Amino acid sequence: MLLGVLALRAESPALRDPKNALWNQRAPDVYRVRIDSSKGSLVLEVARSLAPRGADRFYHLVETGFYDDSRFFRVIAGRFAQFGIPGDPAISNIWRSQSFPDDPVRGSNTRGTFAFAMTGPGARTTQIYINTSDQLQQDAQGFAPFGKVVEGMDNVDNLYSGYGERSGSGMRAGRQGKLFEEGNAYLDREFPLLDKLIRARIISR
Q1: Is 153 a member of any domain?
Q2: pTM as predicted
Q3: How many structural domains comprise the chain?
Q4: b/e for 38-48, b at 16 or more Cβ within 10 A?
Q5: What range defines the domain where residue 112 resides?
Q6: Distance separating the N- and C-terminal Cα atoms of the chain
């Protein structure tokens, strides 16, 4: 029996250690991330000039396999698709409160752009949302886009949205506890139609 790609990957030590030197390294000025999902693949292009701190954090999260085997847990049709809580509670609880400083907003939350979700200033951690429509009101609230989907936007549009806020709620609503405590086990049991983020990889530097 062939082992899956994920099973063959050695876990990065940095994944369980937010103080690892890796997290202070600079990301490339421009890079692309391929996400394979249950609806197909999408490619995100990141421009570090838009939000350097966000681009650096995202690069290393992808590099360490942080997002692999997780879920698009909050998909609001015509607004956004959100991911970024690991399926393994042991990992998610390490990173749940590992915030990093804000970036100035240098781009706009137009369709296809993506940014870190947050509850307010200084609260970005690991969760990402992709805008499926123009949401320019997010600019004034401090949400700093740092790239755009350049391939597979139709797959983002097709992510299952039938659960609305019930499956992930908002960070501000304070109802994500079960996602951190039980991970995929909870989501797959209570919200089995959610689409899967199979894996994310850096594909160009």
Answers
A1: yes
A2: 0.93
A3: 1
A4: ebeebbbbbbb
A5: 30-204
A6: 34
pLDDT attached to residue 172: 58
Hey, what are 29's tokens? 């000025």
Residues 6+ apart with CB under 8 A from 16: 90, 91, 94
pLDDT tens-place string over residues 171-188: 655 679 999 999 999 999
Q: Is residue 15 part of a domain?
A: no
Strand pairing category for 196-204 and 74-76: unpaired
- Grade residue 205 by pLDDT with cuts at 50, 70 and 90: low
φ/ψ of residue 58, rounded to 5: -65, -40
Cα-to-chain-centroid distance, residue 24 = 19
* β-pair type (74-76, 80-83): antiparallel
CATH code of 133's domain: 2.40.100.10
Those residues with Cβ within 8 angstroms of residue 158's Cβ, 6 or more apart along the chain or in another chain: 39, 40
Q: Does a structural domain hold residue 6?
A: no
21 contacts: CB under 8 Å, gap ≥ 6 = none
At 83, the amino acid letter reads F
**110: its two tokens:** 């137009």
Confirm whether 2 is domain-assigned.
no
pLDDT tens by residue, 19-59: 999 999 999 999 999 999 999 999 999 999 999 999 999 99
Contact yes or no for 44/32 (Cβ under 8 A): yes
d(CA 155, CA 41): 7
